[in-house]
Specification:
Strand content: under 5%
Distance between the termini: 30 Å
Number of helices: 8
Shape: elongated
Structural class: mainly alpha
Protein backbone atom coordinates (compact mmCIF):
# COMPACT_ATOMS: atom_id res chain seq x y z
CA UNK A 1 0.00 0.00 0.00
CA UNK A 2 1.19 3.50 -0.85
CA UNK A 3 2.09 5.55 2.27
CA UNK A 4 2.16 8.94 0.59
CA UNK A 5 -0.23 11.57 1.95
CA UNK A 6 -3.47 12.00 0.01
CA UNK A 7 -4.11 15.20 -1.85
CA UNK A 8 -7.18 17.23 -0.99
CA UNK A 9 -8.97 15.91 -4.10
CA UNK A 10 -8.06 12.29 -3.30
CA UNK A 11 -9.24 12.72 0.30
CA UNK A 12 -12.60 14.08 -0.86
CA UNK A 13 -12.94 11.23 -3.36
CA UNK A 14 -12.19 8.69 -0.63
CA UNK A 15 -14.78 10.26 1.69
CA UNK A 16 -17.35 10.32 -1.13
CA UNK A 17 -16.65 6.62 -1.84
CA UNK A 18 -17.10 5.74 1.84
CA UNK A 19 -20.42 7.60 1.98
CA UNK A 20 -21.59 5.92 -1.23
CA UNK A 21 -20.58 2.50 0.09
CA UNK A 22 -22.37 3.21 3.37
CA UNK A 23 -25.51 4.24 1.49
CA UNK A 24 -25.42 0.98 -0.48
CA UNK A 25 -24.80 -0.96 2.72
CA UNK A 26 -27.61 0.86 4.52
CA UNK A 27 -29.96 0.20 1.65
CA UNK A 28 -28.95 -3.47 1.62
CA UNK A 29 -28.86 -4.06 5.37
CA UNK A 30 -30.82 -1.39 7.22
CA UNK A 31 -34.19 -1.64 5.53
CA UNK A 32 -35.20 -4.73 7.49
CA UNK A 33 -34.11 -3.53 10.96
CA UNK A 34 -36.10 -0.33 10.42
CA UNK A 35 -39.10 -2.47 9.42
CA UNK A 36 -38.64 -4.92 12.31
CA UNK A 37 -38.49 -2.17 14.95
CA UNK A 38 -41.03 0.08 13.22
CA UNK A 39 -43.78 -2.49 12.71
CA UNK A 40 -43.23 -4.14 16.10
CA UNK A 41 -43.29 -0.81 17.96
CA UNK A 42 -46.33 0.51 16.10
CA UNK A 43 -48.19 -2.79 16.48
CA UNK A 44 -47.36 -3.07 20.16
CA UNK A 45 -48.45 0.53 20.75
CA UNK A 46 -51.83 -0.24 19.17
CA UNK A 47 -52.23 -3.46 21.18
CA UNK A 48 -51.35 -1.72 24.45
CA UNK A 49 -53.68 1.19 23.59
CA UNK A 50 -56.53 -1.27 22.97
CA UNK A 51 -55.82 -3.20 26.20
CA UNK A 52 -55.69 0.02 28.20
CA UNK A 53 -58.91 1.20 26.55
CA UNK A 54 -60.65 -2.06 27.50
CA UNK A 55 -59.24 -2.62 30.99
CA UNK A 56 -57.69 0.66 32.21
CA UNK A 57 -54.98 -1.51 33.82
CA UNK A 58 -51.58 0.25 33.48
CA UNK A 59 -49.81 -3.10 33.97
CA UNK A 60 -50.30 -3.68 30.22
CA UNK A 61 -47.43 -1.22 29.71
CA UNK A 62 -45.09 -4.01 30.78
CA UNK A 63 -45.66 -5.44 27.29
CA UNK A 64 -43.20 -2.80 26.05
CA UNK A 65 -40.44 -5.08 27.31
CA UNK A 66 -41.34 -7.46 24.47
CA UNK A 67 -39.66 -4.99 22.08
CA UNK A 68 -36.05 -5.80 22.93
CA UNK A 69 -36.87 -9.47 23.56
CA UNK A 70 -38.30 -9.86 20.03
CA UNK A 71 -36.55 -7.17 17.99
CA UNK A 72 -32.94 -7.55 19.15
CA UNK A 73 -32.69 -11.27 18.19
CA UNK A 74 -34.55 -10.63 14.90
CA UNK A 75 -32.21 -7.74 14.06
CA UNK A 76 -29.11 -9.82 14.89
CA UNK A 77 -30.45 -12.77 12.88
CA UNK A 78 -31.15 -10.54 9.89
CA UNK A 79 -27.75 -8.84 10.01
CA UNK A 80 -25.98 -12.22 10.11
CA UNK A 81 -27.92 -13.67 7.19
CA UNK A 82 -27.78 -10.55 5.06
CA UNK A 83 -25.09 -10.04 2.49
CA UNK A 84 -21.87 -8.84 4.11
CA UNK A 85 -20.07 -5.78 2.80
CA UNK A 86 -16.88 -4.06 3.85
CA UNK A 87 -17.63 -1.98 6.94
CA UNK A 88 -16.43 1.58 6.62
CA UNK A 89 -15.76 4.08 9.36
CA UNK A 90 -19.17 5.61 8.64
CA UNK A 91 -20.83 2.19 9.09
CA UNK A 92 -19.22 1.89 12.50
CA UNK A 93 -20.30 5.42 13.44
CA UNK A 94 -23.91 4.63 12.52
CA UNK A 95 -23.75 1.39 14.49
CA UNK A 96 -22.43 3.28 17.51
CA UNK A 97 -25.11 5.97 17.11
CA UNK A 98 -27.82 3.30 17.35
CA UNK A 99 -26.08 1.59 20.27
CA UNK A 100 -26.08 4.90 22.16
CA UNK A 101 -29.64 5.92 21.20
CA UNK A 102 -31.03 2.42 21.78
CA UNK A 103 -29.37 2.12 25.18
CA UNK A 104 -30.50 5.62 26.12
CA UNK A 105 -34.06 4.81 25.04
CA UNK A 106 -34.09 1.65 27.13
CA UNK A 107 -32.76 3.32 30.28
CA UNK A 108 -34.92 6.42 29.85
CA UNK A 109 -37.99 4.19 29.55
CA UNK A 110 -37.02 2.37 32.75
CA UNK A 111 -36.19 5.47 34.78
CA UNK A 112 -38.97 7.71 33.49
CA UNK A 113 -41.57 4.93 33.39
CA UNK A 114 -40.95 3.48 36.84
CA UNK A 115 -39.48 6.24 38.96
CA UNK A 116 -40.60 9.62 37.64
CA UNK A 117 -43.91 9.11 35.86
CA UNK A 118 -43.06 11.57 33.12
CA UNK A 119 -44.38 11.17 29.55
CA UNK A 120 -42.18 8.25 28.50
CA UNK A 121 -43.68 8.09 24.98
CA UNK A 122 -42.51 11.66 24.39
CA UNK A 123 -38.93 10.86 25.42
CA UNK A 124 -38.71 7.61 23.42
CA UNK A 125 -40.15 9.17 20.28
CA UNK A 126 -37.80 12.14 20.59
CA UNK A 127 -34.73 9.91 21.10
CA UNK A 128 -35.57 7.52 18.24
CA UNK A 129 -36.45 10.39 15.93
CA UNK A 130 -33.11 12.02 16.63
CA UNK A 131 -31.32 8.69 16.02
CA UNK A 132 -33.04 8.25 12.66
CA UNK A 133 -32.36 11.85 11.64
CA UNK A 134 -28.72 11.57 12.69
CA UNK A 135 -28.35 8.37 10.66
CA UNK A 136 -29.76 10.27 7.68
CA UNK A 137 -27.28 13.10 8.18
CA UNK A 138 -24.30 10.78 8.50
CA UNK A 139 -25.25 8.62 5.50
CA UNK A 140 -26.62 11.55 3.50
CA UNK A 141 -29.98 9.84 3.03
CA UNK A 142 -32.69 12.50 2.96
CA UNK A 143 -35.53 10.05 3.62
CA UNK A 144 -34.01 9.13 6.99
CA UNK A 145 -33.34 12.76 7.84
CA UNK A 146 -36.86 13.85 6.89
CA UNK A 147 -38.71 10.94 8.55
CA UNK A 148 -36.53 11.07 11.67
CA UNK A 149 -37.05 14.81 12.06
CA UNK A 150 -40.79 14.33 11.55
CA UNK A 151 -40.83 11.64 14.24
CA UNK A 152 -38.90 13.85 16.67
CA UNK A 153 -41.29 16.75 16.03
CA UNK A 154 -44.33 14.49 16.47
CA UNK A 155 -43.00 13.57 19.92
CA UNK A 156 -44.22 16.95 21.17
CA UNK A 157 -47.75 15.82 20.38
CA UNK A 158 -47.38 13.35 23.26
CA UNK A 159 -47.17 16.38 25.57
CA UNK A 160 -50.36 17.85 24.08
CA UNK A 161 -52.55 14.77 23.69
CA UNK A 162 -54.01 13.58 26.99
CA UNK A 163 -54.13 10.00 28.25
CA UNK A 164 -53.84 6.85 26.24
CA UNK A 165 -54.59 8.59 22.94
CA UNK A 166 -50.84 9.31 22.91
CA UNK A 167 -50.32 5.65 21.95
CA UNK A 168 -52.08 6.26 18.63
CA UNK A 169 -49.77 9.17 17.81
CA UNK A 170 -46.79 7.08 18.94
CA UNK A 171 -47.77 4.25 16.57
CA UNK A 172 -48.30 6.65 13.67
CA UNK A 173 -44.96 8.36 14.33
CA UNK A 174 -43.10 5.02 14.28
CA UNK A 175 -44.75 4.15 10.98
CA UNK A 176 -43.51 7.46 9.56
CA UNK A 177 -40.09 7.38 11.19
CA UNK A 178 -39.14 3.70 10.75
CA UNK A 179 -41.49 1.85 8.41
CA UNK A 180 -41.51 4.34 5.52
CA UNK A 181 -37.69 4.64 5.49
CA UNK A 182 -37.39 0.84 5.80
CA UNK A 183 -39.49 0.29 2.69
CA UNK A 184 -37.64 3.06 0.83
CA UNK A 185 -34.26 1.52 1.76
CA UNK A 186 -35.45 -1.91 0.60
CA UNK A 187 -36.63 -0.37 -2.67
CA UNK A 188 -33.23 1.33 -3.08
CA UNK A 189 -31.52 -2.03 -2.48
CA UNK A 190 -33.66 -3.68 -5.15
CA UNK A 191 -32.81 -0.92 -7.63
CA UNK A 192 -29.07 -1.12 -6.81
CA UNK A 193 -28.95 -4.89 -7.16
CA UNK A 194 -30.61 -4.60 -10.58
CA UNK A 195 -27.75 -2.39 -11.81
Amino acid sequence: MDNRPLSEKESLQLIAQMIQQTQRGLARNAGMPFLIWGYMTAGLALIIWWLLEETADPQWNLLWFLLPVVCVPLTIWHSRRSEMHVRTYIDRVISQVWTVFGTAGFFVSLIVGFFWHLPVLFFILLIMGMGTALTGLIARLRILLFCGTTGALLSFGCLLIPGIEQYLLFAAAFLIMMVIPGHVLNHMATKMSAL
